[in-house]
Amino acid sequence: MKSNMIFKRRELKYRISKEQKDGLMAMIGNRIIDDPIPRYSICNIYFDTPDNRLIRRSIEKPVYKEKMRLRSYGVANQSSKIFVELKKKYDGVVYKRRVTMNLSEAENYISGDAARNGQIESEIDYFLDKYTGIGPAMYISYDREAFCGAEDNELRITFDNNILWRDSDVSLTSESYGNKILTDDEYLLEIKCANSMPLWLVKALSDNRIYKSSFSKYGVAYLARTAS
Description:
By secondary structure, the chain is α+β, with helices and mostly antiparallel strands. The chain is 26% helix and 42% strand.
């Protein structure tokens, strides 16, 4: 299996203002470098059961939770390469498995019309069998700026904004549109690291009064939908 198809890391999230983002970048700019592709758009389809079992359980903040999604970078067509991702979180550590397919292959695979071999596919198959009636539940897209540590490429720092969700027209081939999760001057900061966060980053977060929060894009969108 390709190493970039399997991830084990800690993922910390922070809801921040543009002022906090600018202050943080001013302090850590010499410690980080652009990702190979530093700016891009991400489109996701989250899967759930008809009674929203997965997201309801996730919101309860259990020790263990899991989810599945399809991901494309930008609007897809049937031949676009996309990722089928299975993400699990246990005791604060995130385990992610993903396989690449084109969109047409992924749709046939998930619907059961085509089989695939491999360890990750076996885990996805088990997940799909485990949750009766699971299917596409919500579309979420956003724009991302991505950086990694200048001396530690396992450290990733990303800023997401223009986060949009919808529960109709749940398709990766449709344009990005929907309901906003954050205001125009807010960002979701995510810090992903294999081990502990470096001290220089801890200090920069503290100096800019940036504090960790529990933030799930799908969870926030689900709660907004149920409240409306």
